[in-house]
Design a protein that fits this description.
- By secondary structure, this protein is of the alpha+beta class.
- 19% of the residues lie in helices and 35% in strands.
- It is built from 2 helices and 8 strands; from the N terminus they run E-H-E-E-E-E-H-E-E-E.
- It has an 8-stranded mixed β-sheet.
- The longest helix has 12 residues.
- The protein is globular and about 40 Å long.
């Protein structure tokens, strides 16, 4: 059975400068630009659970705040989501957007591919 660990909480922003100022102030640390492999946006570097900000878009994970859970085997985890009554909105090899059994969105990230 796969285990999921909180890895990233991602917040979309209409005004990224305003969002960065807010989250840096709340968290007491700066959010720094991500590497190209991690995608466009900013995130904390010194947390167990990373907090990220990105420009709001229209993609499957770009319009709502999402908690990301890191899993060792994303295919197995996606099967488990469906088995438990959730739905997979946007499957992928490195990350996927899902909804839980109550319709709340969340994301899965393959270990080593998500937040860190």
């Amino acid at each position: 059975m796969p285990s999921a660990r909180p890895a990233l909480i991602e917040f979309p922003a209409d005004d990224t400068a305003r969002a960065l100022r807010f989250w840096s102030g709340i968290l007491g640390q700066d959010l720094t630009p991500r590497s190209a492999e991690q995608g466009r946006g900013w995130q904390t570097a010194n947390s167990d659970t990373v907090v990220g900000v990105h420009e709001r878009g229209t993609g499957p994970g770009d319009t709502v705040s999402l908690p990301y859970f890191e899993v060792n085997d994303i295919e197995l985890a996606l099967g488990r989501v469906a088995e438990l009554g959730g739905t997979v909105i946007h499957p992928g090899e490195r990350w996927a957007i899902c909804r839980d059994s109550e319709g709340s969105p969340f994301a899965l990230a393959a270990a080593g591919e998500g937040a860190r």
